[in-house]
Amino acid sequence: MACPMSNICRGLRTVSLVLFYYVFSIGITFYNKWLMKIHVPVRWCCSSPQDFHYPLFMTLCHLIIIFCLSAMTRCAMQCWTRKTRVTLSWKDYCYKVAPTALATALDIGLSNWSFLFITISLYTMTKSSAVLFILFFSLLFKLEEPNPFLILVVLLIAGGLFMFTLKSTQFNLEGFIMVLLASFIGGIRWTLTQLLMQKAELGLQNPIDTMYHLQPIMFMGLFPLFMFNEGLSLATTEKLFRVNELHPLLYSLFALFLGGSLAFGLGFSEFLLVSRTSSLTLSIAGIFKEVCTLLLAVEFMGDNMSTVNWLGFVVCLSGISLHVGLKTYYSKGNGSTVRSLPARENPDMELPLLMPRGNCSESEDEG
């Protein structure tokens, strides 16, 4: 029987990791909105030095920063553990990593792009619909078995989203479609990511290794869309390539590096939270994170939320909570709706992002 002090320490550690995750997760959402600033298309943007209306270029810069930080972290981990980090062959890289990387690039790119048009509250609510698409593709790839309760989950989330957008006073169709499309692609992204990280022969159970391998193809996949939409405008802007003063350039570079660091910190904080607690903790923390994000958006960003909007949000969260509860129930041996995929024995800091397994990290302290 564990002593009370041990339970207290474990509880404090969990709370600290959740708060650490919140800093990066909520922080990058508000950062993206802060950098985009005004809900106008790129071609209509104003010239204020605080407004940086190049979401795709911003995403590309973040990918470069994440790649560099991942490479540095891999080197540090290799020196610490004295074990060589995995490096995939070109065949595995092109055929097995590329689909996940392209889906991830489109998901992130469209999500960041949408901040030019919509509020944080509408973005948060619409992005929650990703659970629907993750469920759909999990069933399609047979990662989960059909369950009658899933129909209720889908109805609650879809109904909540409908109620939220129906009475939204700050609704923007273009931004809404972008986020909804990003959520659909996100369903593909996370399903492929789960498959990728659980393929024992690839050895990508550690998200640092996964991020390191994904970023180059993500960059190449997003670059053509950037050139078509923002290339000419960026080449002629006074904030970067036609800069007249040093201050705006330093401001832009600092802002881009800050966002890249937040994006890397988000992936790393998710990794720490799940590896030190469980994926259930991450799922529950994600539900409360949505509430915190909306409250902060209303308080500090001027988002307007009607009673119907809040009711729709509660209905949507009820669906997400039911989904998390069902996965927890079945993962504890009361049934089986989730098909376990093969994983390496004794993996180095393994992170099962989407598979809630109750004892995923009670003995992870050697990591």
Task: Give an overview in words.
The structure is a single chain. The chain has 367 residues and is mainly alpha-helical. It has one domain. Helix content is 70%, strand content 0%. The longest helix is centred in the first third of the chain and has 33 residues. It is globular, with a radius of gyration of 21 Å. The C terminus is likely disordered. It holds the Pfam family TPT. It is a multi-pass membrane protein. One of its GO terms (cellular component) is membrane. This is Sugar phosphate transporter domain-containing protein. It is found in: Membrane.
Which short descriptors sum up this protein?
367 residues, mainly alpha, globular, transmembrane helix, transmembrane, membrane, Sugar phosphate transporter domain-containing protein
Total number of domains: 1
Most strands sheet: none
End-to-end Cα distance, whole Å, is: 24 Å
Low-pLDDT stretches are: 38-50, 335-367
Q: Which structural class matches the secondary elements?
A: mainly alpha
Helix percentage range: over 70%
The assembly state of the depicted protein chains is single chain
What is the total tally of β strands?
0
Number of H/I helices: 12
Rg (CA only): 21 Å
The averaged pLDDT comes out at 75
Q: How would you sum up the global shape?
A: globular
How much of the polypeptide forms β-strand, as a percent range? Answer: under 5%
User: How do the helices and strands follow one another from N- to C-terminus?
Assistant: HHHHHHHHHHHH
